[in-house]
Amino acid sequence: MKKISLSAACVLLAGSFLCSSCIGSFSLFNKYEKWQCNMTSNKYVNGIVGLILQPIVGGVCLFVDAVVLNTIEFWTGSNPMAVNKVQTVKGQDGRYYAVKTLKNGYEVKAPNGEVTLFIHDSKTESWSISQNGVTKEIIRFNADGTIQASLQNGEKLTVSNDQAGMQKVREAVYNDNCFALR
Predict the structure, then answer these.
(1) Structural domain harbouring 163
(2) Same-domain status, 55 and 71
(3) Does the predicted model carry a pTM greater than 0.70?
(4) Sign of the CA dihedral running 87, 148, 137, 123
């Protein structure tokens, strides 16, 4: 009895470490689950095959997700399984855009087929926009904790990394737009 309770305590402790604090997105297991549910058009065949595969493949996917990919995601801040994932997002204009996750940023495809890239440069800690072959830096994170925003008129504005700083950027962009309207 003492052996069983010690084993049960070890399993519960290990399980609590897997299910607490930094839980990753479990993207590998979720991809396997999505494939399993949609492998055929017959839900009964999917269920039977799922019962056969789940103990082996599900366990391996869950282990790799929990131990390997979650560790990579925690220490690097990026999920290796998230690359090439596409989501449809409704824009402020009411149209739907396809947003594809890249290794170093995002690709946004407009309904008219126009493609815009948002690229992150980890060496300079900056985000750039690339459209029609023209690349322009839009924001840079400085070493002192401030943010350098590039305005539409080419000026650089350095602000604090908080709500007050964002308000200054909004005001600068709004003033430039109002000036252009006059």
Answers:
(1) 142-182
(2) yes
(3) no
(4) negative
